[in-house]
């Protein structure tokens, strides 16, 4: 029975890939990794990502200026708009209905393997995180929920406390599960990080 389920799952992945191939999609190669990236990613949990949520270059559906990041929370996609009416589309996990955030922001700061300090509001909801806050957060690494990279979203000079970041739970890509932040697989957030700069416009719809 288990073997049959595995066969059916692989068949569904192949069918999805075939459907995508018939559209105007092109795969995007993985980015180059630093030595630290390779070391940490080697121990991060692996997951089979639905082909629909993998990284593709597509026709731009947003109409925004090149360099703009657009997050489609309903369909769980993040688009990085490119010249020539193209965009790179990434699968993401988004905030649950209770904690989802939408709006316009800019990338105010960027960090590699960032330290994670849970916001006070999160600790109020989940008191078990209090020791993490008391300890000053969690060092960057494979056990850190921010993953390989973080883009910090600002409105003017104010940190919104929302991030676009990696994840050590890649199996949740395509779901509505986070506390409002936009999660990407680590390899995808590295790719995005390499393509954007501080000041980039971000629209979360």
From TrEMBL:
One of its GO terms (molecular function) is acyltransferase activity. CDD domains: YkuD_like. Keywords: Acyltransferase, Cell shape, Cell wall biogenesis/degradation, Glycosyltransferase, Hydrolase, Peptidoglycan synthesis, Signal, Transferase. Pfam families: YkuD (PF03734). Its EC number is 2.3.2.-. Belongs to the YkuD family. Residues 1-21 form the signal peptide. It comes from the Bacteria. Residues 67-205 form the L,D-TPase catalytic domain. PROSITE patterns: LD_TPASE. The active site is at residues 165, 181. Pathway: Cell wall biogenesis; peptidoglycan biosynthesis. This is L,D-transpeptidase.
